[in-house]
Amino acid sequence: MTLPLKGTITALVTPMHKDGSIDFDSLRKLIDFQIAGNISAIVPCGSTGESATMTFAEKCEVIRVTVEHAAGRVPVIAGTGSNDTAAAITLTKEAKAIGADAVLLVSPFYNKPTQRGLIAHFSAIAESCDVPQILYNVPGRTVSNVTAETQLQLAETYTHIIATKEASADLEQMMEIIRNRPAHFTLLAGDDSLALPIIASGGHGVISVLSNYAPAQFGACITAALSGDFEKARALHYPLFDLMRLNFIETNPIPVKGILSMMGICEENYRLPMQPLLKENKEKLREALINAGIL
Q1: Where are the domains of the chain?
Q2: How confident is the model over 200-234, as pLDDT tens digits?
Q3: Would you call 58 exposed, middle or buried from its count of C-beta atoms within 10 A (0-12, 13-18, 19+)?
Q4: Which residues 6+ apart lie within 8 Å of 38 measured at CB?
Q5: Residue 5 confidence class, pLDDT cut points 50, 70, 90
Q6: pTM score > 0.90 for this model?
Q7: Which of 69, 101, 162, 282 might form a disulfide with 1, Cβ 3.0–4.6 angstroms?
Q8: Rounded distance, CA 153 to CA 114, Å?
Q9: Which residues are catalytic?
Q10: b/e per residue, 132-152, with b = 16+ CB within 10 A?
Q11: Residues in CB range of 25: below 8 A, 6 or more apart
C-alpha cells in the first residue's frame, strides 16, 4: 500500500445495533460504499467512530474486519490514540499486527499535557512501533493544542510520523507546518469546511466526516483542488457547504449517523452518552441533503 496519503480519507462511523453491539454487516456495507465512491483511505476507530466508548477488544475487531473487508483496495488507518500512552502503544502494535497500513494518534485528552508531555507521549509510541503514524490535533475535544513547533519537532525526529490531521481551525498554525515540514510529512485537514483553503495553502487532503455519506461528491471536490482546478473545486464545495456545518448541529457523529440511517446504510444507534438526533435537526439535515442532491 502506497503512503504517504493524499486526497479524501473517511473517518468511518461505527455502525451499531440497538443494544449497542457493533453491526459488522453495516460496517462492511459502509466500506464498500466508500470504495465505490473512490475514497483515498478509511479510518476506523476515530472520534467519528465513537472509539471513546469502545473496549480494546472491540477496537481490535473493528480494525480487523475493516482490514479484511477492504482487502487492499484502499489503505486502512486505524485510530489507536489514547490519553494513556501505554494503552496507545499496545493498540498501535496490535493494529500493525492486524494489518493496518497506518495509525491515527489523537493527542491525549483530559490530561492536558504540556508540549514536553506531548513530545514524550508521541515519541514513546513512535519508538515502540515503526508503523506509519499520523498525528491528530483536535483542541476542541482534547482541550490542548499541539503546536506547530511540537508537530514539526516530532516529524523531524521520526520519519515514520508521516502526516498530521489538523483540526485546530488555526490556519496560521497549519501554514507554519506546511511551510516548514520535512519532505516526508504532509498536512491533512481535519475540518471539511477548511479543506479547500488548506489545500490552496499546500495541504494534501482531508480526513473527513462528510465523506461517510458523500464520498464521490466530496472526493471530486478535493481531487479538483489538488489538481489546481479551484474553479471546479469551488463549484463542488459550496453545494456541500451547509452540510459541512450541519454535521455539527449536534455532537459528531450524531448527525452523520442520522444521515446514514436516512440513506439506509446503517441504523441510527449510538452508545451513551450519545443520543439520537432531535426531530427538528433531522428535518434540517434532510432538507440540506435534498438541496445537495444526495437524497
Answers
A1: 7-229
A2: 999 999 999 999 999 999 999 999 999 999 999 99
A3: middle
A4: 215, 216, 219
A5: confident
A6: yes
A7: 101
A8: 15
A9: 136, 165
A10: bbbbbbbeebbebbbbbebbb
A11: none
Contact assessment for residue 205 and residue 220, using Cβ atoms and an 8 Å cutoff? no
Exposure b/e, 232-243, CB count within 10 A at least 16 = b = ebeebbebbebb
In single-letter form, the type of residue at position 124 comes to A
**Residue 143 identity (one-letter amino acid):** V
Confidence grade of residue 1 (pLDDT, cut at 50, 70, 90): very low
Q: Which three cell numbers stand for residue 100?
A: 493496518
**Is residue 2 exposed (0-12), middle (13-18) or buried (19+ Cβ within 10 Å)?**
exposed
Do residues 112 and 76 make contact, with C-beta atoms less than 8 angstroms apart? no
- Domain 7-229 matching CATH 2.40.50.100: the answer reads no
Helix or strand (DSSP H, E) at 43: strand 41-43
Task: Report, in angstroms and rounded to the nearest whole number, the Rg of the chain calculated over CA atoms.
Answer: 18
Strand, coil or helix: 54: coil
Cell of 115: 508540549
Asked whether the beta carbons of 29 and 40 are under 8 A apart, the reply is: no
DSSP 67-80: HHHHTTSS-BEEE-
